[in-house]
Structures are given as structure tokens and as C-alpha cells.
Amino acid sequence: MDDYLGLFSDSWSIENDVPGGESISNNSRDYTVEFTTDQIFKSREDMINWVKTVGLKNGIVVVIKNSANLKGGKLPKCHLMCERGGKYKPPRYLVDGQSLKRNTGTKKCECPFEVRGIPIPPDGVMWGLKVVCGFHNHQLAEYIDGHEYPSRLKPIEKEFVLEMANSTTPREILSILKEERDPSNTTGIKSIYNAIFTNKSAKRGGLNSIQYVLDQLIKKEYLHNYRTNPDTNEITDILWVHPKSLELSVNFSSVLIIDATYKTNEYRIPLLEVVGITSTMRTYSLMFAYLSNERTEQLTWALDTLKKWMVEKKASLPLVFVSDRDLGLINAIETCFPNARHILCIWHINQCVMKKCAPMLGLEWQHFNASWHSLINSSTQWSYRQKWDVMRKEYQRFEGVLNYLWDTWLHPYKERFVSAWVDTCMHLGSNSNQRAESAHARLKLYLGDTMSSLQTSFEKIHKMLRIQFGDIKKSFERSLNIPRHQHLHDDIFSQIRCRISLEAMELISGQLKCIEEASHQLAGRCNCSIKIVYGLPCEHDLAHYRYFSIPIPLQSINAHWRRLSMHIHQFNDEGAQPNRTSHVVEILDGMDPHMREHMIDKFFDMIDPSQSTVRAPSYNTEHRGRPTGRDEQSGRRISSFADASTSGSRVSQPAATSRERGRRGRGSKVCNTQMTHDHSPVPPIHDTYIEKLPVPLQRYISHTVDVQPDGHCGFRAIAALIGYGEEGWFQVRFELIEEIQQNKDLYDQLYPDQNLVTNLLFSLNWFEPWAPAMHWMDSMPLGIVIASRYNLVLHTFGENVGSCFTHLPLRTPPVPNQERREIAIAHVGNHFVQVFLHPHYPVPPIPTWWWQHSSYEAKEWVIPYRTRLQLWYEVMGTPPPNASGAEFGGNID
User: Fold this and answer.
1) Which of 4, 108, 364, 489 is the most exposed place for a label (fewest CB within 10 A)?
2) CA-to-CA distance for 383 and 373, rounded, in angstroms?
């Protein structure tokens, strides 16, 4: 071996041994010393890794020039060179003089650098190294990040990327790789996308994306159907239903909500989603349909297919449909389900009325809006007619407004949205398609991209459905096994406890609170809407049961609330189906030969997608979608009649409403948006919300902005103020849960009562469209969580001085004043609104518990507010606290 290693010390002549005889520039540097070593490497891989490591330290990217394994008694070989070595060779398919289609370049510059691995006899397992030429004819790399070879994903990194790809965006994966796993990693975002794409291609096993989706639909036992363009064989419409969703529809088909969403796929075609409501008020997704357009013919095909599957499953046909006023959808529902009631989404109607009528009415809009809500909430047809007559007399000078209401809405559709007619059927409180909108939002969170392929869309939808079914099963189990304490100690619930859903029990509990003023003699004779709309006993029935000490009979509860299972129990198999094979053969024999071949091809496509010739949908260039150029969430809410009668307006400065709200739209910077006016505090214009806050504070408030009163109002206000848009309330709930769970030790110290942390997590964990009282926001304990999560200053105001506080982050040092975000909300009655303040407003006190548990760095947040904290006590006329614990949080109990 020593004689063999002696070869390493031989001198090499540059003039004679430079590969290819390339000339060396006088400015080039010789790296022979850096790569010269007497080290014996245990393997070829060790030798290559050593050379590459030395190269990276010196700004050189070394690649394999050529290599060969041990074969035919010959020793293996391995030659390494600079990545810029060699000469560019154009593709063979190019004719002489023809240029490339893409505007590309080359890094090849015939760099002469080369090192050779020397295999050590007899078997060549161990290796030495010899420098053939140590010169480079180019400038060396200053940054390795722009070079492909060192930036490639390592096998363990590639495995990590593929594991994370199902739940994390590529940019987040790259961030984790660089910041948490390997700070020296030079991988680029393109490598992440390439790894994911390669994995998807490998997963398909040679099938194209459409064949793969059809194959997965069959393997996962989805009911599915599709139509193709006969000329191009491209899919025009495709829909699928999960078998468990169809089972749920057997138990819960009373109300179905239909809505289309856009910008979910690369083909730019709408996605129609049909959702239902379980007995635990959970939303389940029944059908997904990608349709070429939303015309009557496509919608009728989709709904008729769904109806056929429901009939085959022996499910009851839906009693109520809820949708917006899409004429094609209205016609499709009337065609496929002629006996079902159709309710129009009241939210969309109110939006249209505001857009059309508000400009014509001007300052009269607020009063008109209250009258309009009173009209559509009429409980009887007689009161509806009376209110309409009053409106026509009161607004007779606005003939255009009255004609619009009558011709567009009331005359053709009043039976579909006015309470006097709508509340004559069991719609479970769903007079809007908000559940479908929430389902769309949840789906888009999973898709994470507006340009998903059909394969990606199906995979993400399937994953979402698995989680959705788990949540529904959990809600069933809670209703069956975890009764509420208030229900355990009241004998009136003895027959229905753990036999109906907890949500139905909550609705009944709400009626029980009213029985003191209800007459038990009206039981069975009243027309209370809860009996019809929800199928539950009303306050008069409950007064009767309480008066005679009778438990609530299970039979008085509609069967919808008694079903607490995803499985079908009420139907029995009627026996084996007859063999219809011979009948199918007879039909095929009687067909035209061309049609027979077409049907046979379609049959093989269904049973063996790998042989299918079906192509992906074509790209739709005339797609619908949300309007661009404005805040997606602005104007998202129209105040209800109750709100309109107690609040001046949603935004108390009409002239600045659209402009100001547009500037505060999604993605806009939120810091100090309420301090853009440089003037002294002035009395606000009429705003009932402001008037309910402490009088000394009112002149410092610029205006308030209302949000939808659906139990999520506090989270809606926060979402709007931090730039998510009002509909981002669900994301705020997610992130606050995450904040508490990730810093649980800190919050356990902050809230000594262990149940408080648990109760906070419980109250946050609700993502249905309407939240019961137990899931409303409690701004006092959550204020500091919000401030810490979003690293901002949060002011919470209440109807008295003692309920006003400032919440600061617990852990982080303060940000510069010009980047600091300051937001405010107010709790008035049982409702939260956004608050916008004038400059130099007094700052409410900081809870004592923040002083006790905040970090040393975080305490610097308070420095800019010291003067205005003192100003608060002067303006409010209250003495500052002298003792620890005088403020809320000194003693949490």
C-alpha cells in the first residue's frame, strides 16, 4: 500500500496535465494545497463528501465528472470536477442555427479544476485522492445559495418535506428547514415544490391526475359521477359524495344548504357544496361538485344525481333548502325536489337592499333599515301587511325604493324569506347560507391555494371530511355520556337526558327561563315558532310540564334531535337485489353499434380508471369570483332589526364609511388606524354604542364599527381590527387556542384556578356559525392572551369605568412606537363592537396580574403610556389604586 500511496507525492505538470490543455489565467488561484491530503478514506462516499466539504469552504462546488464501479477485474474510478467545468452542448433536437424556446443560460466555462479518487487495490473499497489541476478560470462563489448541487435536499430533509406537505405550505416548510432544523441549509423554495411534485407523480403510479382521482374515488368507495365533452373527452362536470356523508343524510336530511364558491382550483370552475345539519348542530358536507358553470342544466344534473343516491340509500328527501337567489339554482331545486320548501338567504337579500337603497335614501337609510328588518321579521301575515302599508305611506316620496323592494323581493319571493312564511317549516334556524359559507372558509383553509389541481383538491377534501366526521362523532358521544350539571339536578329532564343532543337541551333550557311569565293553560294551543322551526317544546308546554311535575316526554322532541349516530338503524335490507346482468346485455345488443361502444368504454372507465382516456377539465376563462379592488369583508354584515333600533349605524360616520373601511381591509396595516386625525377630542355624533360607555370617555371616541351578533362578535371585532377581516373570526379562535396551549405553564401561573384555563380553551373551541353563550368571548381573561398572541396593545371598554382595561403582551419586548398596533373593542350589553379613538386618548389601567407575571423585557411596553395612564384617573374622576390587588387581577378569585 505504501508503494501505491507514493503515487500521491509525484509532481504534476500543469502544462502537460491540465485536462483538455486549457490555458490558465494569470489571475487564477491554485487550490492544489487545499485539496491535497494523505488521508485514506474508508469508502468512496467518504472521499466524495470530504472533497465537497473542502470545496464549499472555499466557494467551490464540486460535482462528479465520471465514475465506474468495480467490474471485470478493473478497479473502480471516480473523477471530480468544478460544476463550471466542461462545455455547453445544445440539445440534440435543435437544428443548426435554431435557438432555444426558453431564455436560458449556462454556467459551463470549461473550468480546468479536477481531482481524482485513487482506488486502493485489491478491491478498491478504500480510496486516496490526487489533485489533477487545482486552478479555476472563473470567479469563485460568494454565496452557495444560488447553486443547485449544494442546495439539493438531503434524503432525511426530503422525507421531512413530504411528511409536512400534507398540512403545511411549502414556504412554511422551507422556513422550518432553515431556522429550526439546519441554519446552514441553502435549499430554495423551488426544491420544495419539486420534491412535492415528484412525490405526487410517484404516488399516482403512472396514472395521470384524472385517472388517479377516479381510481381513488373507487378505492375509497365514494359515490361519484362525471360528464365529459364528447368532442374533446374533457371532464366538464364531476361530483362525489363520501359514503359516511350519505349515511348522515339518512338521519339528518331535513335541511340542506347549497352554495357555490370560487377560486379553489386551477381550472377556474365553481365548486358547488351541499351541507346539512346534525342533531348536535354540526355542519356536515354532503356533496362536492365541480361544474363547468352555474346554469340550470348543470345544477339540475348535480341535484338529480344526489337525489338518486339518497333514494337508493332510502333517505328521506330534504324538507327545506337554503340558498341565495341564483335563478338557475332555484329552477334546479324546483325540478328535482318539487315538494321541498326553498328559503332564500336573508343575508344576501339585506346586502342587495343596502347596496340599492342606501344611496337613494341618504340620511333616511338608518330609519328605513330598521323598518325593513321589522317587516321581514313579521311573525304573522297580517302584521306583514300592516307594516308594508306603513312603509309605503312613510316612504312614498322614494318611489324607486318601494318599487325595487316590491318587484325584486317581496312580490315574487316574500314566502321564501319573510318570517311569517318561513317560520311555518322546520328550518332549524337556518334562514341564511352562512353554514355553507363557513364550510367554504374551512375548506379553503385546507386547500391553502386558489390554484389547486383536481388531485390536490380531492386529497384535501378527503382529509377535511375525516376530521369533520371525527368532530361529529365526538359531539354525539358528549350528548350521550356527558350531561350538563344543570340538567342532572332537574327532574323535568329525566326522560330526555342523554337521549337527545346537548344543543337541543340548551334550547329547551332557554325556554325554561321564560316559563314564569308563560301560562301553562296555553300548552298545545299556542303557535310559538320554536315548536315549528326547531321541533322542540315551547315555554307554554314547559310551563305545563312544570306545573304538573311531569318530565318532558321524549315524544315531544322531534326525531331530528334524538338521532345521535352516524349509522343507519331504521331501515332493514329487503333482501338481495335481482341479477340484472342479462337485462343489461339485452339493452346493449339493441343499441346502435357506435352508442354500444361508447357505453362499453364508459363502463371500463368506471371500473378501471388506469385505462381511461378522460382528460382534465379545460380552463375556464369566464369564471366568476369575488369582485376585486375592494375589501372582501367590507359591508359583510347588515344590522338586524334589534341592532338597528338600538344603534345609530354600523359606522357612525356615514361620509367616511366605505373609504375608511376600504383602507382597513384585509391585509392592510392596522397600527394606529384609530389615530389618523390630528385634532383635539370632540363630541362624537349620535351613536348608541358610544352613549352606553362611560360619559367622560365618550368625547375621546371617533366612532364604532358594528359586527355580526352571532355569538362570535368579540372574535369578529378582533379579526377585523388585526386585518383578517370580520370573517376571520375562526382563525382568531384557532390562534388563541394555540397561544394558550403553547404557553400553558405561563397561563397556569397567570390564572391560579386550573379550571379557568380549561374553561377558556373550552369556550374558544367552537367553530359553528352560531355560538351559544358558553362559547362567547370573555374579554377580561382573554385580553392578555390576545395582546400576547398578536404582540399589540388592546383596550377593552365596558359600560362602567371599572370594566375598562389595557392589555399588554406578557413575553416580548416592545416594538418601536411607529410600528406599534393599538386596537380597541367595547362590550355593550351582550355585544362587542370595534372602537376607534381620537389621538391622545386617556389609557385605561393595566391589570395587576400583568405586572406580576410579565417578563422583564415586556414591562417596557408601559413606558409610553405612563402619562396617559395617569390622565385616565383624572378624566374619569377616580383615584388611582394604592394597594396591590386594587385592580382586576390582583386576586383572581
Assistant:
1) 489
2) 13
Angle formed at CA 848 by CA 844 and CA 851, multiple of 5 degrees: 105
For residues 678 and 737, what is the distance between their CA atoms, to the nearest angstrom? 38
The DSSP bridge partners found for residue 62 are 82
Is 0.85 surpassed by the pTM of this model?
Answer: no
- Give the integer Cα–Cα distance in Å for 627 and 624: 9
Cell of 351: 346586502
| pLDDT reading at 680 higher than 70 | no
- Asked if pLDDT for residue 302 goes beyond 90, the answer is yes
CB 860 within 8 A of CB 832: no
Nearest to 302 by CA among 222, 238, 245, 223: 238
Least reliable range by pLDDT among 545-559, 580-594, 788-802, 859-873: 580-594
User: Distances in Å between the alpha carbon of 75 and those of 41, 68, 70, 404?
Assistant: 16, 9, 5, 91
Smallest Cα–Cα separation from 285: which of 441, 453, 476, 422?
441
The answer to whether the beta carbons of residues 588 and 600 sit under 8 Å apart is yes
CA 46 to chain centre: 47
Average pLDDT of the residues of the chain:
81
Strand 320-323, strand 255-261: pairing: parallel
Per residue in 93-137, pLDDT (tens digit) is 766 666 766 777 888 888 999 999 999 888 888 999 999 999 998
Distances (CA, A) of 314 to 267, 273, 405, 749, 778: 35, 22, 42, 55, 45
pLDDT in tens, 570-626: 444 444 556 667 777 777 777 777 767 766 766 666 666 666 667 767 666 554 444
Task: Answer for the pair 541, 522: CB distance below 8 angstroms, yes or no.
Answer: no
- What is the CB neighbour count within 10 angstroms for residue 285? 22
- Residue 669 and residue 821: Cα distance in Å, rounded? 9
The C-alpha angle with vertex 531 and arms to 530 and 535, in degrees rounded to 5, equals: 100
**Sheet of strand 62-68: strand arrangement:** 62-68, 77-82, 114-119, 127-133
Q: How far apart are CA 108 and CA 83, in angstroms?
A: 8
Taking the C-alpha atoms of residue 689 and residue 833, their distance in angstroms, rounded to an integer, is 8
